[in-house]
Amino acid sequence: MLGWAALSPVSGRCVYAGVAEVSVYVASAARGKGVGKALLRELVAASERVGIWTLQGGIFHENVASIALHAACGFRKVGIRERLGKLRGVWRDVVLMERRSGVVGVEVGSTLQSV
Prior knowledge:
Blueprint: E1 3-9, E2 19-26, H1 35-49, E3 54-60, H2 64-72, E4 76-87, E5 90-100, E6 106-108, E7 111-113
Parallel strand pairs: 2-3
Antiparallel strand pairs: 1-2, 3-5, 4-5, 6-7
């Protein structure tokens, strides 16, 4: 397996039905070969096909490759959550990244349009 990507709901509340959390994993042997970008781009397209308007991801601050990958796929940094994750007993800051769809949930006049 070269990698995988998945979406998870951020909440069970219906008002957040169009918001999902992104998870992407690329095997170490496949890193730097475009696998992550292909997975994330397809995940974005699939999310829009099912009406998701916002994707968010939490990435450890030191994972600069993942932050760059998400930025290349249209995500932006919206904040840092301090000491949110713990890996091997060490607290980690998490960069919160977000991508808003350009086609789902786009405001036109005073109504929202969705695909």
